[in-house]
Amino acid sequence: MSDPQPAATPPGADPRDPVPAPRVDPALDARLREHAEAIRAKIRDIPDFPQPGILFRDITPLLADGAAFQGLVDAVTERYRGQIDAVVAIESRGFIFGAPLAYALGVGLVPVRKAGKLPDRTLREEYTLEYGTATLEIHHDAVHHGERVLLVDDLLATGGTVRAAANLVERLGGEIAGVFVLAELSALGGRDRLAAYDVTTLVVY
């Protein structure tokens, strides 16, 4: 996949150490838990990609399995049905999950993109990653005051990306009704930065 987002090694850890087995988030409701078990099996580990010492979590087998992908979208849709006015998806793999969720929920899709990718006037938010800094942007009129927003991304690592997107939504007057990410790297502490929000993640590493 282009624009890879590797599973980073926790600070102070030896990348050669054994990798903890993934688990299903214990806070999930029954239907999400049922699908999470199947989804976990569809994410494969690619060692030393895109560079030595990095373990890459590859979601392409999940995307290639129509029944598994549909089950994921259906289960997450039921979790948020009637609670959401817009889905805000974070570039780039957040678009993969955000678009079908917006369609299924019958709401609009708002892209949050890297700097310079949106054509109209934008708000921007700079944030810190585990490997540097970056900037996200959203169109100035993409979210309306009081709208209930579901933030969607594929991976929760340090939480910087999702937190920056949440800040953009709130600066436009939107309310974060929920955060959905497919997988979480718990050792990086991203959930702590999102303590103010209702975060749903299916697979925890």
Shape: globular
Span of the ends, CA to CA: 20 Å
Low-confidence stretches: 1-18
CATH topology: Rossmann fold
Kindly give the count of domains.
1
Order of helices and strands: EHEEHHEHEEEEHEHE
Reading off the top of the CATH hierarchy, the class is best stated as Alpha Beta
Q: Gyration radius, to the nearest Å? A: 16 Å
Write structural notes for this entry.
The protein is α/β, with parallel strands linked by helices. The protein has a single domain (23-204), classed as Rossmann fold, CATH 3.40.50. Helices cover 29% and strands 31% of the residues. It has 6 helices and 10 strands. The protein has helices spanning 30-40, 60-64, 66-80, 94-105, 160-171, 190-193; strands at residues 23-24, 44-47, 55-58, 86-90, 108-114, 122-129, 132-139, 148-156, 175-184, 199-204. The chain has an 8-stranded mixed beta sheet, with helices on both faces. A two-stranded antiparallel sheet has the order 2-3. Helix 1 (30-40) packs antiparallel against helix 3 (66-80) and helix 3 (66-80) crosses helix 4. It is globular, with a radius of gyration of 16 Å.
